[in-house]
Design brief:
The complex is a heterodimer.
Chain A (H helix, E strand, L loop, with lengths): L3 E8 L8 E8 L4 E5 L6 H9 L6 E6 L2 E2 L10 E4 L11 H11 L4 H14 L15 H14 L4 E5 L7 H18 L2 E6 L2 H7 L2 E6 L2 E6 L1 H6 L4 H6 L6 E8 L4 E3 L5 E3 L12 E5 L4 E3 L10 E11 L2 E8 L2 E8 L9 E6 L5 E4 L5 E3 L16
Parallel strand pairs in A: 3-8, 3-9, 6-7, 7-8
Antiparallel strand pairs in A: 1-2, 1-4, 4-5, 9-10, 11-12, 11-14, 12-13, 14-20, 15-19, 16-17, 16-19, 17-18, 20-21
Chain B lengths: L1 H14 L1 H31 L2 E3 L5 E4 L3 H8 L1 H32 L6 H9 L6 H11 L6 H8 L11 H29 L3 H10 L3 H29 L3 H6 L11 H10 L4 H26 L7
Antiparallel strand pairs in B: 1-2
The chains are: A alpha+beta, B mainly alpha.
Bound molecules: adenosine-5'-triphosphate and magnesium ion.
Adenosine-5'-triphosphate binds next to helix 1 of chain A.
Protein name (chain B): Sugar ABC transporter permease
InterPro entries (chain B): ABC_transporter_permease, MetI-like, MetI-like_sf
Subcellular location (chain B): Cell membrane
Chain lengths: 376, 303
């Protein structure tokens, strides 16, 4: 268990533009840290810099308390799982797992014990004699995992290890990796472009976009209080609904389009700006009930409906794009229906349209958080 | 009864549809091979049982006499020995040199493309043209090799005229000539190896030699196997450089088997014995190749 500290790290491949710029983060010992972002944002580059496979253009990388910028990968005391597993195709599963131990000249007896322990932990005992090409995708993935774990390195790096697996196996491996990490207490740095993986696995997640940090925090905080519109739309499925609005000082409301505007309470007058970005989570848009006040009802026309088991997602047009609404239950909604909705002022996020920073967090998320007290 | 028979017939015609389609596609190469490979091959085997006239027509059937004559002939045995020595000198050295060059050229360095071009350039030179150049290099008085020896005050060598040196000299030029092709094939093989394997090994702390031994060589084995087979066959069939550099001399020391066949057939007009030699060479290459497949294949890892 060691901490990993990135201080002002930048990376440039062509000496002109930065692929990664000014990364400052400390990954705590034993933490499961997830790096998430869209394709091409520099996740792999960052991981490879930590591993020592890619040179650091600028800044300081510390592992433990030591600066490791100039240390070769072998001296950094870490293990890595590659996106394509990088198993040695000419070696058997057993030889693959033992490769690193061989290199480190671990005595044969230890090697055998450690291999069989790891094989058992990952359910690979029956496959030790096989070559990688004779394994299924999931089994290969486990061999890659075994190869990383068997080295007992305090830090483990993983680059999109689940991206080649089918949905069911992916869900299974998510929890398996998480459990192993907890059991061994290793510091895990895990790269993914899949926000579900990030949300479900990470102690903390870091959202990266075009080489710079968008937000770092635990998944629920990031979900509830996204730092900017990018994070708001990247995390969560379906993503947060976003549109730009115009503050109207006369009616004390933010106009979203011709028919929809959000009344702003007197004490929040400062949000009535020329231009403001407004966001609301699909599940925070409610159906109007008999008790709802007529003035609060917003009538929208449904353009698309999807029913996913016990969840109904429908969308309506808003500005240039469309907004989505997610309700639990199977709602009998048809395309073209006019539906009255309620959007609470408290559920909205506002973002500054210039700086793209959050200026109003949703204040009623407590309604959606349940403590242990609810259990009888 | 009748019905079932016609049914069976029809189904045979129908079932052979794939085979007939395949045959149609194969037809051009079957034709080409028949004219340029199969016919000459069978003609050679046929001729090896005859004494021939000046025009190479079979004149007198002699059975295996051509072969027994060959096996007793000192000149032929010498020619076999020279051929095997030549194979021994050129194949391993050539492949090792090509492998070293390929490993060097596979590094990611600035301007490596230049070296890749240079190293593979001998592929673009014909045997004849390069042999003429080597003829100059080997020249006893104005050749560069002897000039070099002169600079270091070493005794002069009669590269192509001294029986102890001639085969080595020809081997040297052959190695140089074949390096380009082997280099290119091996470099291609190296570039096919997944970069991540090396990165993973580097994280584990494997040294360069360890990576070479445990990853590069095994992963390259199919390519190596291919190039060894091709080089062996090529070496057995060497003709051009011999014809230009030594004409089989001095005192038969470079009279490799193909050159010997050529001399027997087109200088001495003994098409019968020449054919017998050709058949013998064919059997030699066949045996070596089969042996190589049997022994080598076990060590080769295919993806
Ligand atoms: N060797 C390289 N030379 C030049 N540019 C590179 C190199 N490797 C990556 N890049 C660039 O750096 C940027 C970040 O690449 P990186 O591989 O880190 O993305 P990523 O976040 O891992 O994406 P993905 O999710 O698709 O794997 C990309 O724009 C890419 O084009
Ligand atoms: Mg990547």
């Amino acid at each position: 268990m060691k901490k990993v500290e990135l201080i002002d790290i930048s990376k440039s491949y062509d000496k002109q533009s930065n692929v990664i710029s000014n990364i400052n983060v400390t990954i705590e010992p034993g933490e499961f840290f997830v790096l998430v972002g869209p394709s091409g944002c520099g996740k792999s580059t960052m991981l490879r810099m930590i591993a020592g496979l890619e040179e650091i253009t600028d800044g300081v990388l510390k592992i433990g308390e030591k600066e490791v910028n100039d240390l070769p990968p072998s001296k950094r005391d870490l293990s890595m799982v590659f996106q394509n597993y990088a198993l040695y195709p000419h070696l058997t599963v057993k030889e693959n797992i033992q490769f690193g131990l061989h290199v480190k000249k671990i005595p044969k007896k230890d090697r055998m014990i450690r291999t069989s322990d790891v094989a058992e932990m990952l359910g690979l005992t029956d496959y030790l004699k096989r070559k990688p090409r004779e394994l299924s995708g999931g089994q290969r993935q486990r061999v890659a995992l075994a190869r990383a774990i068997v080295n007992e390195a305090p830090i483990c790096l993983m680059d999109e290890p689940l991206s080649n697996l089918d949905a069911k196996l992916r869900a299974h491996m998510r929890s398996e990796i998480r459990q192993i990490q907890r059991r061994l207490g290793i510091t895990m740095i895990y790269v993914t472009h899949d926000q579900i993986e990030a949300m479900t696995m990470g102690d903390r997640i870091m959202i990266l976009h075009e080489g710079s940090i968008q937000q770092i925090g635990n998944p629920i905080d990031v979900y509830n209080n996204p730092a900017n519109p990018f994070v708001a739309t990247f995390i969560g499925s379906p993503p947060m609904n976003i549109t730009s609005g115009v503050g109207d000082k006369e009616s004390n409301a933010i106009r979203l389009n011709d028919s929809i505007s959000i009344p702003v309470p007197f004490e929040d007058e400062r949000y009535l700006m020329e231009k403001i970005i407004v966001g609301i989570r699909p599940e925070h848009i409610k159906a109007a009930t008999k008790e709802s006040k007529e003035a609060e009802k917003i009538l929208v026309e449904v353009v698309n409906v999807e029913i996913l088991g016990n969840e109904t997602v429908f969308s309506f047009l808003m500005g240039e794009g469309s907004w989505q609404v997610k309700w639990s239950g199977q709602w009998q909604i048809e395309v073209g229906d006019k539906i009255p909705l309620i959007m609470n002022y408290e559920s909205f996020c506002f973002f500054d349209s210039e700086k793209k920073e959050i200026i109003k967090k949703p204040s009623d998320v407590e309604n959606h958080v349940f403590g242990k007290e609810v259990f009888v | 009864m009748m019905v079932s028979q016609t049914k069976a017939k029809k189904s045979v015609w129908k079932r052979s549809l794939d085979a007939r389609t395949a045959l149609l596609y194969l037809l051009p190469s079957i034709l080409l091979f028949s004219v340029f490979v199969f016919y000459p091959m069978f003609r050679t085997i046929y001729l090896s049982f005859f004494l021939t006239d000046q025009n190479g027509n079979a004149a007198l059937f002699v059975g295996l006499e051509n072969y027994t004559y060959l096996l007793e002939s000192v000149a032929f045995r010498n020619s076999i020995k020279a051929t095997f020595l030549f194979v021994l000198y050129t194949v391993p050295t050539g492949i090792i040199i090509a492998l070293i060059l390929a490993l060097l050229a596979n590094e990611k360095l600035k301007g490596i493309g230049f070296f890749r071009t240079i190293y593979s350039s001998t592929m673009g030179i014909s045997v004849a043209a390069s042999s003429v150049i080597w003829l100059f290099l080997f020249h006893p008085s104005i050749g560069m090799f002897n000039k070099l020896l002169n600079i270091f005050n070493l005794p002069q060598v009669e590269w192509l005229l001294d029986p102890t040196w001639a085969l080595l000299s020809v081997s040297l030029s052959t190695i140089w000539l074949n390096t380009g092709f082997s280099f290119l094939i091996l470099l291609g093989g190296l570039q096919n190896i997944d970069e991540h394997l090396y990165e993973s090994a580097r994280i584990d702390g494997a040294s360069y030699w360890y990576r070479l031994r445990r990853i590069t060589i095994p992963m390259l084995s199919p390519t190596l196997f291919f190039i060894v087979t091709i080089s062996l066959i090529n070496a057995f069939q060497t003709f051009g450089q011999i014809d230009i550099l030594t004409k089989g001399g001095p005192s038969q020391s470079t009279n490799l088997i193909v050159y010997s066949i050529y001399k027997e057939a087109f200088v001495n007009y003994q098409f019968g014995t020449a054919s017998a030699q050709a058949v013998f060479l064919f059997i030699c290459i066949l045996i070596v190749t089969i042996l190589q497949f049997k022994l080598g294949e076990r060590k080769v890892h295919y993806q």
